[in-house]
Design a protein that fits this description.
The chain is 42% helix and 21% strand. The chain has 251 residues and is α/β, with parallel strands linked by helices. An 8-stranded parallel β-barrel has the order 1-2-3-4-5-8-9-12, surrounded by 5 helices. The model has no long low-confidence stretch (mean pLDDT 97).
């Protein structure tokens, strides 16, 4: 397992080619060698690949707009081939699929054809959870419906440690339940500030990292991507650096 940076953390600094290059340089200077492309501006995939390669950084996964995955699957596959990224990630199921169990089942039906195309191209469709997926509908958690609805070779999970915890789950337990299906994980910590939960830098909060990392090894996680949705006024690059420094010896 190796550590990487989820670029959604620094999305405000990836909207142009110039800014993206400066961001990748900063990421590489911290010590990250793997990234997830997410929240960036309309930059050609070839430039993503060229800029990352110039700083010895490799894109391994994206978050791609769900409508593009579903309706422009061939283009999405080609873009990932250009970037050298194996994993085609969706950040969350769109709102149109949020209504009860039937909504989740419709998501499965609508995205199965794309997932099969992606599999046949040698890539893997990946689903990233929030807390929403831990709501029970028709007697099952949405996460259970998703894992049952897609065969392992058709969809993996970019399990998000913070959001599993926020949904009332145990990240280590879910890694065990999804053994072999979490090749990429999002690692972010959780702390309480003035009675409210916040995501924060690794080991600056309350998550059980020894248990999570042990479960990662057993589950076959390959890439642990550091992410913060919100830096709460701090410099997000400093947040990524602190997480990297706090994780030395773990990877």
């Amino acid at each position: 397992m190796v550590i990487g940076a989820q670029l959604y953390t620094v999305r405000e600094f990836t909207q142009t080619e110039k800014d993206f290059e400066q961001t990748i340089k900063k990421i590489a200077d911290i010590g990250y060698r793997y990234v997830q492309i997410s929240g960036a501006g309309p930059i050609p995939p070839k430039r993503f690949a060229e800029i990352c390669a110039s700083y010895d950084v490799k894109p391994v996964i994206t978050h791609t707009a769900p409508n593009l995955i579903k309706d422009s699957t061939d283009e999405v596959i080609e873009n990932h081939r250009i970037m050298g990224a194996k994993y085609v990630g969706v950040g969350m199921m769109p709102g149109e699929y949020h209504e009860g169990a039937e909504g989740t089942k419709k998501f499965i039906v609508d995205f199965l054809p794309a997932a099969k195309k992606i599999r046949d191209a040698g890539l893997l469709f990946m689903y990233h959870n929030h807390a929403f997926e831990f709501e029970k509908v028709a007697g099952k958690l949405r996460m259970e419906l998703l894992s049952d609805g897609f065969a392992p070779e058709l969809m993996g999970f970019t399990l998000d440690t913070y959001w599993v915890q926020a949904g009332g789950g145990d990240p280590a337990q879910w890694l065990e339940r999804l053994n072999g299906r979490v090749e990429v994980i999002h690692i972010k910590d959780m702390k309480i500030v003035e009675g409210k939960q916040r995501d924060c830098e690794i080991k600056e909060g309350n998550l059980n990292w020894p248990a999570i990392y042990a479960a990662c090894e057993k589950a076959g996680v390959k890439y642990a991507m550091v992410e913060q949705d919100n830096s709460y006024g701090d410099d997000p690059f400093d947040c990524l650096k602190l997480s990297f420094e706090n994780s030395k010896g773990d990877f």
